[in-house]
Automatic annotation (TrEMBL):
Species this chain originates from: Nocardioides aestuarii
Matches recorded under InterPro entries: Methyltransf_25, SAM-dependent_MTases_sf
Pfam families listed in its UniProt record: Methyltransf_25 (PF13649)
Name this polypeptide is given: Class I SAM-dependent methyltransferase
E.C. no: 2.1.1.222, 2.1.1.64
Domain Methyltransferase: 43-136
């Protein structure tokens, strides 16, 4: 088992004591960016327990959902079956720093694809851009700052402009257009369900030119 798989398996099993970590609901900023798009083939990077992938499948997308944690993938598959969309989602285990799904996609989503471990995230996202079909979109939602209850208060998160710069779009073979570069606030609760206040998200949307 790799260090990355071991870290995330520990999160989903030991530290969470086997309980679900996430709400099972779609990320609201992701939904805001994709719900008006015509469905096609989508890739969900770091799908976790499947909330975003299930939302896309319900909207008619054919989804490839990937994660490094077998436990997360198993939970996501069960949730997809319960939601009646298992036939629209293919779950694949990938350590995205080393392997990547095959094929092209009309949409690639990445909600909080961030890790305290070493990760060539920019390289993964650039590979995602290369996998977009003409007219396809990459939708990124990231933490713009650490939640108030997080142990990572010392971490400095990149700004939306820095996220775009890390993609080095001009060096890619295809042409891309940046559609959204924003920091957005939302009201959130801590993991115990208590109101905590506003959180800052970074939202970036990049489209491959037709």
């Amino acid at each position: 088992m790799s260090e990355t798989e071991a870290f995330w398996e520990d999160l989903y099993t030991t530290r969470a004591e086997g309980a679900p970590i996430w709400s099972g609901r779609v990320n609201p900023e992701l939904a805001r960016e994709v719900d008006d798009l015509a469905p096609g083939r989508a890739l969900d990077l770091g799908c976790g327990e499947g909330g975003d992938a299930i939302h896309l499948a319900r909207a008619g997308w054919e989804v490839v959902a990937v994660d490094v944690s077998p436990t997360a993938l198993a939970r996501a598959a069960l949730a997809a079956a319960d939601a009646g969309v298992a036939d629209r989602i293919t779950f694949e285990r990938h350590d995205l720093g080393h392997t990547f799904p095959t094929g092209s996609f009309d949409l690639v989503t990445s909600a909080f694809f961030q890790s305290p471990l070493e990760l060539d995230k920019a390289g993964v996202l650039r590979r995602s851009l290369a996998a977009l079909a003409p007219g396809g979109r990459l939708v990124l939602v990231e933490h713009g700052a650490a939640p108030g209850w997080s142990e990572h208060q010392h971490v400095e998160f990149p700004t939306p402009a820095e996220v775009v710069a890390s993609l080095d779009l001009d060096s890619l073979e295809a042409a891309y257009e940046v559609l959204v570069v924003e920091g957005r606030t939302r009201v959130a609760s801590n993991p115990d369900g208590h109101h905590h206040g506003e959180l800052l998200d970074t939202v970036v949307v990049v489209q491959r030119r037709p």
